[in-house]
Amino acid sequence: MPAGPGGPVRQTEGMSARVRAPELRGRGWLNTGGRDLKLADLRGKIVLLDFWTFCCINCLHVLDELRPLEEKYGDVLVVIGVHSPKFEHEKDADALAAAVERYGVHHPVLDDPELDMWQQYAAKAWPTLSVVDPEGYVVATMAGEGHAEGLARLIEALTADHEAKGTLHRGDGPYVPPAEPDTTLRFPGKAVALDGGNLLVSDSARHSLVELAPDGEKLVRRIGTGARGHADGPAESVTFSEPQGLCLLPEHVAEVAGYDVVVADTVNHLLRGLRLDTGEVVTVAGTGRQWRSTVDDHAHDARSVDLSSPWDVAWYDDKVVIAMAGIHQLWWFDPIRRTAGMYAGTTVEALRDGPLPDVWMAQPSGLSVSTDGARLWIADSETSAVRYVENGVMGTSVGQGLFDFGHVDGPADQALLQHPLGVCALPDGSVLIADTYNGAVRRYDPETNQVATVADGLAEPSDLVVTAEGAVLVVESAAHRLTRLAPGALSAAGASTVDGPRHRAERKPTDVAAGEVTLDVIFTPAPGQKLDETYGPSTRLVVSATPPELLIEGAGTTTDLSRRLVLNGEVAGGVLQVTAQAATCDADVEHAACHLTRQDWGVPVRVVADAATRLPLVLRGLDA
């Protein structure tokens, strides 16, 4: 149904009614040179609204998917990032400005801290994309990632239509680039101590690796040109794209593999190998394509398998374990056999412990191995949790779920973190936590099962490293530096107990009826595409619930995008976890390309009498 400028966009089957785009309003704008934009300023352009939040790996994938579109269609297309945050820290205007620079966002961004625009455009998932035509009408809505090819076809169709009508205006858009900063590091991600005392740091926003002297400040050398790319070669010509994790291989493994350090080249979806003596870099795992397949437990040739945003790497259980943030799993890589495969997780984004194949994770972003090699510690960022692997089982030490976070010390089952990105195992068996969005370093002691705050007031710490002398350095990412903790910080006297705020990410729940409910995932192939049944069913739907007893029937995996659910009327509400994907291919062309669209939803629901018996989710909807 149509809505006025102040009303929400409502998705209907086929979106047959023309829907006027709601006006753009927020706390402020970035990348516009201080100018506030209105839809009237964008009339004559195709406007793509990208509803994102900077903690979300799927949102970061979409930023990368949009870059070629912005370059190719820059004279007719204006991308507007609408930042609608999940975590409390993401509501901070300075943190948003830092994230816009960190992730190379080269389009205007509207700050939407209270999710007003999110609600106006009826978004239900991060990310959500809405396309507004040159006359100011919403013509497409889509959730998740994998829409780049379909968007290109839609942009070309809209360009032709509105050029013929005389309603298209070509020319530059409203983007104004910020001033270029001058620092040695720019949003460093991870660090590792090298033999001899030097430190190797992933300089993520500068797309390179930096070797620093033991003081953590003096530049020894830079590996990489600083430009975004994926070229192998010597230090002065190699390129990366937002590298993160670093793993120093055992000497006997490095000798056979031919390189010393494994680098998680995150946005390239690759693992790279670095020779420390020469600075030469070679690709060792990944095709460069983002993983969009199904889970299996087979070993694959490492160079033939697709990866998805590898964020950290660690040597554990005689292999490199990969924190595969993009698909909420751990993978493994064998640098001697040159094979790789899935290690833990089902790709469902949530928190569930148990045997490794069956666990649920949410954007694992930091890894560290205990001194005795028995336990692998994990920073599971989207559940604000610290988890571990031991003896083939995953457990959770700190953390309660996708929507619970804060800064609370004390007993581990009550303590809260906020989007931690790094962990560091200490010789005494405890683990330090880079509690990123709280700006703190925390310490979890398994002996006492207590969490304490070691340091705070830091700018988005993302990793920690212990030097050979026992000093602790913090990768203070948003301050663009390494920071040394005070010598007494790790002692009981140096730690403090914080009883800070408790937060729960509250999104308006959808009222649904107890008993039978029909879940419909709406998917319309992009122009020029059709569902692809070449290798079997073209669609897949996975459903689960938190708490599990919310869902009496309907959990599991099917190939139909419509599902009968039975909700428990004795459970007041919870979260439905829904994963949907659809495979398409180009229609009626020789050598047709194939595409996969995928999205994970965590849908808060409230079970009430006389509520809706149908729950629609839009994977891709078009104005037909």
Alpha-carbon Rg, integer: 24 Å
- Give the tally of β-strands: 45
Q: So how many helices?
A: 5
* Mean pLDDT across all amino acids: 90
Beta fraction of the residues?
35-45%
Major beta-sheet overview:
11 strands, mixed
Distance between the termini: 14 Å
Helix content: under 10%
- Indicate the low-confidence ranges by residue numbers: 1-16
Structural class call reads mainly beta
Cα shape: globular
| Quaternary status | single chain
NHL repeats: 417-447
Keywords: Repeat
Domain Thioredoxin: 15-160
InterPro entries: 6-blade_b-propeller_TolB-like, NHL2_NHL_rpt_dom, NHL_repeat, Thioredoxin-like_fold, Thioredoxin-like_sf, Thioredoxin_domain
Topology:
Blueprint: E1 19-20, E2 28-30, E3 46-52, H1 57-72, E4 77-83, H2 93-102, E5 109-111, H3 116-120, E6 128-132, E7 137-143, H4 148-165, E8 188-193, E9 199-203, E10 208-212, E11 219-223, E12 243-248, H5 251-257, E13 261-265, E14 270-274, E15 281-285, E16 300-301, E17 310-316, E18 319-324, E19 329-334, E20 339-344, E21 354-355, E22 364-369, E23 376-380, E24 385-390, E25 393-398, E26 404-408, E27 410-411, E28 422-425, E29 431-435, E30 440-445, E31 450-455, E32 461-466, E33 472-476, E34 481-484, E35 499-504, E36 510-512, E37 515-523, E38 529-531, E39 539-546, E40 551-553, E41 556-558, E42 562-567, E43 573-586, E44 594-607, E45 614-622
Parallel strand pairs: 3-4, 4-5, 36-44, 37-45
Antiparallel strand pairs: 1-7, 2-5, 3-6, 6-7, 7-45, 8-9, 9-10, 10-11, 12-13, 13-14, 14-15, 16-20, 17-18, 18-19, 19-20, 21-25, 22-23, 23-24, 24-25, 26-35, 27-31, 28-29, 29-30, 30-31, 32-33, 33-34, 37-42, 38-43, 39-41, 39-43, 40-42, 43-44
Protein name: Redoxin domain-containing protein
NHL repeats: 417-447
Organism: Micromonospora coerulea
